[in-house]
Design goal:
The chain is an all-beta fold and about 110 residues long. The chain has strands at about 10-20, 30-40, 45-50, 55-60, 65-70, 80-85, 90. The chain contains no helices and seven strands.
Length: about 110
């Protein structure tokens, strides 16, 4: 877990691993999701990393309370988080193989 760097001072509260080649994207490599709190900005974040390279793939803003558990869907491009107050947040990962900010059809 030390390989996947979160901002200094943040506290890791949950992790989940998506094995390489899920049914919804056979070309996708393995990912790890790391939930962490950023006390300086009073925000909960989920950072997705490429397991092979350690590169940050995406950063998601989480619920208000710290995340207690994360889970990837085995059959669909979804990541779910459960916070301490039992709030459930679900993110779509259908565009996870695209760079953030990239627009289709624009060169």
């Amino acid at each position: 877990l030390e390989r996947f760097k979160t901002p200094g001072g943040s506290k890791v509260t949950a992790t989940a691993v998506l094995p390489a080649g899920p049914p919804w994207n056979k070309r996708l490599g393995s990912l790890v999701a790391v939930a962490h709190t950023d006390p300086a900005n009073d925000v909960t974040l989920v950072t997705l990393f490429d397991v092979a390279t350690g590169r940050r793939v995406r950063q998601l803003i989480g619920p208000e309370r710290p995340i207690k558990a994360l889970a990837f869907s085995a059959s669909r491009p979804l990541l779910a988080a459960v916070a301490g107050d039992r709030t459930v947040t679900v993110w779509s990962l259908k565009d996870i193989d695209k760079e953030v900010g990239a627009l289709d059809g624009v060169s």
